[in-house]
Structure prediction request, 372 residues.
Amino acid sequence: MVRILQDLLSKKTKGIGIELTPERVNVAQLKKKGQGFQLAKLATAEVPEGIFQEGQIIDSPAMAEIVQQVLETNGIKVKNAATAIPGGRDTVTRIIPVPAELDDNELREMVLNQEAGLYLPFPREEADVDYQKLGFFVDEDGIDKVQVLLVATRKDVTDTYLDTFQQAGIGINVLEISSFSLIRTIREQLRQFTPQEAAAIVDIEFDSTEISITVDGVPQFSRTVPIGTYQIQSALSRAMNLPPSRNTDLLQGMTIPVTPMDSVGVPQMGGTNPGSAAMLRVLGELADELRRSIDFYLNQGDNMEVAQLLLAGPGGAIGQLDEFFSQRLSLPASQVDPVAAISLEIMENEVVDIQHPAGLGVVLGLALREAW
Prediction:
């Protein structure tokens, strides 16, 4: 069984990062250069409807064929890769306290066979579970404890990923949850926050948005909501009487109109065209979900205040979205550029067209683990 979680900053043997999404397959290969990295390979291919839905691969043979084709078309030869499962109902990340005096074997037994079942929304025997020991602390009763990051996925989802890559002729070095990959990419940006501050990473993907609240680069809370670029694009198309489309590239050139707020904190729609108004309604729903998520996190005890929103994923690049969320939620917000986050250089002998860098956060984080 491939470990689901290892050191968030660790790297393994030479390979590539391959990200599977409902919309496309992304492939990246990095080469170390001094203290930084060069982009050796970058490739992408569209995924037709019906192959990947709600965080699960529905058609493994078809997905495996797409992976093979994108590698062959771009002349990428590799035996091993790192990949990630999107966060959602089939994944769990929790920080749990356990007694500090346990040795490694006792800790493993307690976490995997005793504690894990208490935090899973599905039966323990149906889950693949992994963990990582974090820092020590003293609880309110004066007892020494250690924090453990618990990670779990449904076994059938894990098996489907492994089977897909096996059909594509690729071994899996690392299988992790996509939010960890994104955190690895933007770790330098996360270091600007103190241990007393939390950052909310808002990863707006094709058909969902994963909200991860981190402290010291470690996810403390995560939640996935079913609003993504497809839902925004669909609302825009309906309002403009355009045919429905899975291609959300149109959003990359859009700018959200930042308008004055009314007395209850809702953007005023006066003078806004029907398409922009439709986008604002969907983004307003997403902002409400963000607010609920942050409030839930803050109500879970002595949690750190959220200092900033970091907008990532394909939807994070929509023009002035940072200003919209900042205004709506009364929190500073900034848009993440994954390429700039790791000071990525492009190798001189490679012609790489990076059209939508905001959507590369996860695949670059996977490639960082495999850099050579």
Notes: The chain has ten helices and 16 strands. Residues 1-12 have pLDDT under 50 and may be disordered. Residues 194 and 216 are 7 Å apart (CA to CA). The first strand starts at residue 16 and ends at 20.
